[in-house]
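Problem 12. The chain below contains 205 residues. Write out its predicted structure in token notation.
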Amino acid sequence: MAATKPFFEAAKDRRTYYALSHESTIPDSRIQEIVKDAILHTPSAFNSQTTRAVVLLGEEHTKTWDLITEVYKQQLPEEKFNQANKRFPGFKAAYGTILFYEDTDTMRQFQEKFKTYQDKFPGWSEQTNGMHQYVIWTALEAEGLGVNLQHYNPLIDVRLATEFNVPTEWDLKAQMVFGKPTSGPAVPNKEFKPIEERLKVYGAK
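Solution.
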């Protein structure tokens, strides 16, 4: 199934959306297809393929944010929990969540195999995880879904790993929340620094 927007149009339109409904603009099968394609085709250093994902849809998504709320209530002082809890209902109201992980065992295997670059692999691991997040975020945008990216780890790591049978070697990096937007993006008119300060080109014809 082709996306509804060309890639760079989706890239330009990609924004953070917090007002999301418990609806999707595409079937669950298409969501799974997007995540599968991203995992298969997003690059990684030395083709290490360290990124892992858990896709939570519908009621599994709702349960996830109940669990996260429960963990924060148990582990944080009341004042800090109350502050965090202002945002949790909005995430719970969305349609789905994707948990992004890095497989630390696989990374260590590549560190042993390529000892010259041993100290570089943790950084490369973070880079490929970020690329997976961006590819999926942009693909969901192309399908008319709104997305926001959260980082409630490490407090929630053990609880989610237990609930969803996540291997101990998977290290949680981010939680991507998505659903049908019910209002505009958090920052509708993004400001850009001058491109001349951010790009150099040599040898162009």
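Discussion. DSSP finds eight helices and five strands in the chain. Students who got a different answer should revisit the alignment rule from Section 12.3.
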